[in-house]
Amino acid sequence: MNIGCLYIPLEHSLSRGMNMQDINSLLDACKVAAGVSSDNQLAAALGVGRSAISNYRHARALPDPVVCATIAGLSGIPLARVLGVVGEARAISREEKAVWRKLAATAMALCLAVGFALPHKAQAAITGFDKSTVYTLCEILYIA
User: Fold this and answer.
1) How many other CB atoms are found less than 10 A from the CB of residue 91?
2) What is the pLDDT of residue 102?
3) Could you tell me if 83 and 64 are in contact, meaning their C-beta atoms sit under 8 angstroms apart?
4) Is the Cβ–Cβ distance between 91 and 18 less than 8 Å?
5) Which pLDDT does position 106 carry in this prediction?
6) Phi first, then psi: what are they for 48, rounded to 5°?
7) What DSSP designation does 121 have?
8) Closest Cα partner for 61 from 74, 48, 47, 78?
C-alpha cells in the first residue's frame, strides 16, 4: 500500500457502482484552484505519487483522509463534502452510500447558510481600525 492511496480491486469497485465522476470533479476542481495543468503537477501539489492520481481517476484507489484534507484545502471545497464524496465511493451498501451522500449535501448546505448569514463586508470591531494608517507598538530591548 502506498501512502495516500487505499487500494481497492478494480472489479470490486466497479461492481459497487462508484461515482468516479464526482472523484474526477474533485480532482479537476483542485487542479484549477492550484493553477496546475497536468495530473503530474496535481500529484506534486497533493503530495502523492504520479500514479496515485491515475489510480483515483480510474477507480483503482481512493484518496485517504490526509489527501482529502489537502484536496479540500487547495480547492476550497469543504472537507466534509470531499470526505462525503470519497466515502460514498468507498461505501458498499446503498444505505452506507446514502449516509455519505447526506453528509456531503449537509456540508454544502451548511456552507451556503453560513455564507448568507455573514455580513457582506467585514467591519472592524473597534473604531479607529478603519483608517488607512495603522501604527504598531513594539518593545525594543536596550542593553547598555
Assistant:
1) 18
2) 83
3) no
4) no
5) 79
6) -125, 170
7) S
8) 48
Pull the grid cell for residue 81.
463534502
Query: What is the average pLDDT across 72-84?
Result: 88
Task: Tell me the average pLDDT across 16-22.
Answer: 53
Least Cα distance to 7 among 62, 53, 52 occurs for 62
- Helix ranges, 50-93 (H): 50-57, 65-75, 79-90
What pLDDT band is residue 4 in, cutting at 50, 70 and 90? very low
Q: pLDDT band at residue 56, thresholds of 50, 70 and 90?
A: very high
Span 82-91, mean pLDDT? 87
C-alpha grid cell, residue 18 = 462508484
Q: Which residues, other chains included, contact 47 with Cβ-Cβ below 8 Å and sequence gap of 6+?
A: 4, 67, 70
Q: Which residue(s) pair with 6 in the sheet?
A: 62
- Are 46 and 4 spatial neighbours (Cβ–Cβ below 8 Å)? yes
Q: Which three cell numbers stand for residue 102?
A: 447526506
The amino acid sitting at 122 is: A
Question: What is the structure's pLDDT at 1?
Answer: 38
Determine contact, residues 129/99, Cβ cutoff 8 Å. Answer: no
